[in-house]
Amino acid sequence: MTKEELVLEAREARKISYSPYSGFSVGAALETADGKIYRGCNVENAAYGPSNCAERTAFFKAVSEGEREFKQIAIVGGPSSDDISKYCPPCGVCRQVMSEFCDKDSFFIHLSDGNEIRTYTLGELLPLSFGL
Ligand code: THU
Predict the structure, then answer these.
(1) What residue ranges line ligand 1, CB within 6 angstroms?
(2) Atom 14 of ligand 1, residue of closest alpha carbon
(3) Entry pTM
(4) Per residue in 15-51, pLDDT tens?
(5) Which CATH number fits the domain 3-125, given the four candidates 3.30.70.100, 3.40.140.10, 3.20.20.70, 1.10.1740.10?
(6) What burial class does residue 15 get, using C-beta atoms within 10 Å of its C-beta: 0-12 exposed, 13-18 middle, 19+ buried?
């Protein structure tokens, strides 16, 4: 899938974000090595702590279905009341989850502000990552 198509998937995922507490809706679309797409949105909770980011929702959906190899992810986010207008880089926890399953040089992270797409490798966003 092209990065433009993957961003469109992430925008669809963002539409069903459950984010009544922050009012910040995030969508992600993750492509597996064999071309399957898993969408994810952020899912918040009244106790705040149990909330889950869009990226981890997508990863946990995929991994729990047996997927282990991934090519790329697109992420979009911003205030729920508006269309996206700024880049929404993944949080540190989500970067660490990506590093469990993805190669630092060949896994690509696409961010869109609704206009342009910026692409990074995982290694660029999480240098000197921890792993066993
Ligand atoms: N959020 C994500 O879904 N992904 C990120 O990478 C950053 C933050 C969510 C968590 C929370 O529901 C809301 O955005 C505001 O922090």
Answers:
(1) 19, 22, 24, 26, 42, 44, 51, 53-55, 90-91, 94
(2) 24
(3) 0.98
(4) 999 999 999 999 999 999 999 999 999 999 999 999 9
(5) 3.40.140.10
(6) exposed
